[in-house]
């Protein structure tokens, strides 16, 4: 792995095949030990540990998390909410929704809308409250359009570039 000369926060980090294999394996099971990971990838434990440390220091590997079945966890209602914002209000939107747990993902996008949110709640009534009372009440939001999600599938695995 080579880090850009601009430092670890730069947008470009060059990863080699072993780095990609480590990321793929960790995305499948982040709880496995470094020893087990090294054995499965045919690398030494020391080399694997060093690579993981470098991936973390470079900001490529930002943490380890659990994959949660949202429906079983009480968040059976989900929707994509598309937003049109007032000029240059992306940061206002981000800070305005930072403490809203129902907003699972927030992205600035190009095209017809300025931002898209993934909102997960326990009920349609709660979804309505989040959209009308939290999102639409922000001064930076000009309009919203909501697409209710009937069923979804999230792939949490890292895909190695160029690998079928």
Account of the protein in words:
With 164 residues, the protein is an alpha+beta fold. Helix content is 32%, strand content 21%. The strands form two sheets. It has a four-stranded antiparallel sheet. The protein has a two-stranded antiparallel sheet with strand order 1-2. The relative contact order is 0.16. The model is unreliable at 2-9 (pLDDT under 50). InterPro entries: AsnC-type_HTH_dom, Dimeric_a/b-barrel, Tscrpt_reg_AsnC-like, Tscrpt_reg_AsnC/Lrp_C, WH-like_DNA-bd_sf, WH_DNA-bd_sf. This is Lrp/AsnC family transcriptional regulator. It holds the Pfam family AsnC_trans_reg. Residues 15-76 form the HTH asnC-type domain.
Concise account of the structure shown:
This is Lrp/AsnC family transcriptional regulator. It holds the Pfam family AsnC_trans_reg. This protein has 164 residues and is of the alpha+beta class.
- How many beta-strand runs? 6
The low-confidence runs, each spanning 5 or more residues with pLDDT under 50, are 2-9
- Overall geometry comes to elongated
State the helical fraction: 25-40%
Total count of helical runs of at least 4 residues:
5
As laid out across the biggest beta sheet, the strand order is 4-5-3-6
Q: H/E series, N to C?
A: EEHHHEHEEHE
Estimate the strand proportion: 15-25%
Mean pLDDT rating: 89
Q: Structural class from helices and strands?
A: alpha+beta
| Biggest sheet character | 4 strands, antiparallel
Report how far the terminal alpha carbons are from each other.
Answer: 22 Å
Radius of gyration equals: 20 Å
């Amino acid at each position: 792995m080579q880090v850009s000369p601009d430092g670890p926060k730069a947008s470009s980090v060059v990863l080699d095949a072993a780095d990609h294999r480590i990321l793929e394996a960790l995305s499948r099971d982040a709880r496995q030990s470094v020893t087990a990971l090294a054995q499965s990838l045919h690398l030494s434990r020391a080399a694997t540990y060093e690579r993981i440390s470098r991936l973390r220091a470079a900001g490529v590997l930002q943490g380890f998390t659990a994959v949660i079945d949202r429906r079983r966890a009480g968040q059976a209602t989900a929707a994509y909410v598309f937003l049109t914002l007032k000029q240059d209000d992306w940061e206002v939107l981000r800070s305005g929704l930072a403490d809203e747990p129902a907003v699972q993902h927030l992205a600035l996008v190009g095209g017809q809308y300025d931002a898209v949110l993934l909102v997960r709640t326990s009920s349609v009534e709660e979804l309505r409250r989040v959209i009308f009372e939290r999102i639409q009440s922000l001064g930076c939001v000009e309009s919203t359009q909501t697409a209710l999600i009937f069923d979804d599938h999230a792939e949490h695995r890292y895909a190695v570039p160029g690998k079928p």
